[in-house]
Design brief:
Length: 155
């Protein structure tokens, strides 16, 4: 596939890009700030975290971070976002592939992700890339915002 983007390991020079990607999507400030902090902290522990940035040229247009949980040998996608102008071009799928490769390298049994139940586009995306809806978590994000967990187990 001839892609117009590349995927690299995160470095803190891309910290401001996290906000640039998330703000137009409509993420609340508390989640944007947490995403910026998480990218910086997670990228310092490459044994347990994979943090990746998608670039178009030298412009950061998307990111993902994934955590490996040693205790249950499952990986968790902790954040995934693509700038609106670059959505539906295979970037999110490529980032999820990279997260899954990280998980497989760690000998994970599978991978999961949580998203708000109201995130219809995100939920459809995860189903399209082979994740199964596992359960709903009442009040997970906020008092009036439930979460849903999607899982994919490796054979």
């Amino acid at each position: 596939m001839n892609r117009r983007f590349s995927i690299i390991n995160y470095s803190n020079q891309y910290r401001s890009a996290i906000r640039k990607i998330l703000k137009p999507i409509g993420w609340a400030e508390q989640y944007i700030s947490a995403a910026e902090q998480n990218a910086d902290v997670f990228s310092q522990n490459i044994e347990l975290y994979g943090v990746y940035i998608a670039l178009h040229g030298d412009e950061a247009i998307a990111f993902i971070y994934v955590q490996f949980h040693v205790w249950n040998r499952l990986a968790q996608i902790q954040g995934l976002a693509v700038e609106p102008n670059y959505q539906r071009q295979g970037i999110a799928s490529a980032l999820v592939d990279r997260a899954e490769a990280f998980a497989r390298d760690k000998k994970a049994r599978g991978i999961y992700v949580d998203t708000p139940v109201s995130n219809v586009k995100g939920r459809s995306f995860y189903e399209a890339v082979g994740y199964n809806c596992a359960y709903i978590m009442p009040h997970y994000y906020e008092d009036n915002l439930d979460g849903v967990t999607y899982q994919k187990f490796f054979d």
